[in-house]
Automatic annotation (TrEMBL):
This is PCAT2 acyltransferase. It comes from Ptilorrhoa leucosticta. The keyword Transmembrane applies. Pfam families: Acyltransferase. GO terms for molecular function: 1-acylglycerophosphocholine O-acyltransferase activity; lysophosphatidic acid acyltransferase activity. The chain crosses the membrane at residues 12-34. One of its GO terms (cellular component) is endoplasmic reticulum. Keywords: Acyltransferase, Lipid metabolism, Membrane, Transferase, Transmembrane, Transmembrane helix.
Amino acid sequence: QTVLQGIVLLPLRAICITFLLLLAWLVASIATFCQPGRGFLPLEGWRRRMIQTTLSGLTRTAYFVMGFQVKVKGKVASLPEAPIFVAAPHSSFFDAIICALTGMPSIVSRAENLSTPVFGTILSSLQPVAVSRQDPDSRKNTVAEITRRALSRGQWPQVI
């Protein structure tokens, strides 16, 4: 019976996750379409709300379909309380759970990730701080950008 469940559940889960991923790509594309000041100005209004609610919900749903049920104990720190928070060890796809639970904050990511099909569009909608491994000044520029966003008095979302 367990093998039969696996034979049925695996393709069903794969189809659902693919559908959710494509839907997330569509939401991210709509939210960033003709975005003024692309990458230099924060998303505002309906664009930011669309990312925070819809993309967060789709991410949580995808993890649920994969079999993960995440419960948050306590209260997530608000933007004025914590403009920056750290996720450690920052080494797996579980980081996306943290993003979904905290309202889809900006993240720090490799610049190469932004050119990945489908995932790159979703990642770009979070307005990440892109780190280039080829640029020798990248570390300094990354710290400066994180500081600028953290001191923006709520104009930019939290940075993870």
